[in-house]
Amino acid sequence: MNGFINVLKPTGMTSHDVVKVLRRILGEKKTGHTGTLDPMAAGVLPVGIGSATRVTEYLDEDFKKYRCEMILGIRSETGDIWGSSLTRQEVPPIDQEQLLELENRFRGEIEQVPPMYSAVRVAGKRLYEYARNGEEVAVKARKITIRELKVLRFEGERILFDVECSKGTYVRTICTEIGEMLGCGGAMSFLARTASGAFTMENARTFEEIEDHLERGLPKEDLLLPVDFPLNGYRKAVLEEPEATQFVNGGHVKRSRAAIDYSEEERFYRVYRGDEFIAMATLDEKKRKLVPHKVFYRDF
C-alpha cells in the first residue's frame, strides 16, 4: 500500500496514537503522520502509508486552516483552558470595530514567540521540559504568515474564528495575544484543523468509516489518496522511455528530453512516466538537466 489516508482525528488522542491505531486496522507497519495535532485538537491529520511517508519534506510550505474558539477573561500558562494556573478577569465591552482591528492585526508576515508548553527545542531541550521544571529560558520570536483571520461569532465571552496560517503557527498563542490586545486575557477552548494543504474535511475519514470499509470486505487500497495527491503545488515534468528508466536509476535527464512546466523560481518538480508519478526532482540550471531528488517507483 502506497498513499495517504486523511484521518479525521478525534480529541483526546495524540497524533502518534492515530498512527498506532491505523497500523493496527490496516496491518501496515510503514505509516507516519504529517503535521502534528495536539491531543485536545480535532481535525485533519494526513497519514502516509508506504512510499507516501517520504513525501513529508515537500509539504513544509503548505498552509493550514483552523477553526478556533477562545474564551476571554482567562489567562493560562499553556494558552488554553486545559492548563493549570488559570486566572480570571472581567471582560470589558467590545465593539465591532475592535474585532475588525483584530482581523487586520493578524494578517501577513508577523513574529510569534512559541509558547513555553510546546515541543520547540532550545539548547537541546523541549520548551515544555523547561516549563515543567520551572526553568526560565529565552525564546526567540519566529516569523509566521497568516493569510486570513476571520471572526465568525462573538457572544458573551466567547470568540469563534477561522484562521489560515503557515507551518509553525501556534493558534493558542494567537488566542493569548488577542486576549492581551483586548485587555482581559484569553485562552483557547476548542481547536479543529479544517485543512492541511490539499487535505480537507471533505476528503477526511473517521476511524469508524475506515473500519466499516474493511468489514464490508472492500479493498484497503480504495481508502487511499495517491502519493502525489498533496504535491499539486509543484510544477510537472513528464518523461518517456528510455529516459524514465534511466532517471529512476539515478541518471540525469536533459531538460530538452522532458515535457516540463519550467519556472526559474521552482525548487522541486513532480516527475511522471506518462501518467504515473515516479519521483521528485531538482533542475541543474547550469547543465540544463533534471536531477533525481527522491525516487518513489522503480518497478518498470
Strand content: 35-45%
Shape: globular
Overall strand count: 19
Please state the structural category.
alpha+beta
Sheet with most strands:
9 strands, mixed
In DSSP terms, counting alpha (H) and pi (I) runs of 4 or more, how many helices? Answer: 6
Secondary structure: helix percent: 10-25%
Low-pLDDT runs of 5+ residues are none
CATH fold assignment of the largest domain: Pseudouridine synthase
Q: Quickly name the level 1 CATH class of the largest domain.
A: Alpha Beta
Structural domains: how many:
3
CATH architecture of the largest domain: 2-Layer Sandwich
Spatial extent as radius of gyration:
22 Å
- Give me the CATH superfamily of the largest domain: Pseudouridine synthase
Distance between the termini: 17 Å
The SSE order reads: EHEEEEEHEEEHEEHEEHEHEEEEE
Average pLDDT number? 93
Short description:
This protein has 300 residues and is of the alpha+beta class. The chain has 6 helices and 19 strands. The strands form 4 sheets. Strands 1, 2, 3, 4, 7, 10, 11, 12 and 13 form a 9-stranded mixed β-sheet that branches. Strands 15-19-18-17-14-16 form a 6-stranded mixed β-sheet.
Task: Report on this structure.
The protein has 300 residues and is an alpha+beta fold. It folds into 3 domains: 3-61 and 198-223, Pseudouridine synthase (2-Layer Sandwich); 64-191, Pseudouridine synthase, CATH 3.30.2350; 234-295, Archaeosine Trna-guanine Transglycosylase, Chain: A, domain 4 (Roll), CATH 2.30.130.10. Helix content is 18%, strand content 35%. It has 6 helices and 19 strands. The protein has helices at residues 15-26, 96-105, 127-132, 171-181, 207-215, 243-248, and strands at residues 3-9, 31-33, 42-49, 64-72, 74-75, 87-88, 108-112, 121-122, 125-126, 142-155, 158-165, 186-196, 199-200, 235-239, 253-254, 259-260, 269-273, 276-284, 289-295. Strands 1, 2, 3, 4, 7, 10, 11, 12 and 13 form a 9-stranded mixed β-sheet that branches. Strands 15-19-18-17-14-16 form a 6-stranded mixed β-sheet. Strand 17 and strand 18 (276-284) form a beta hairpin. The protein is globular and about 70 Å long. The mean pLDDT is 93.
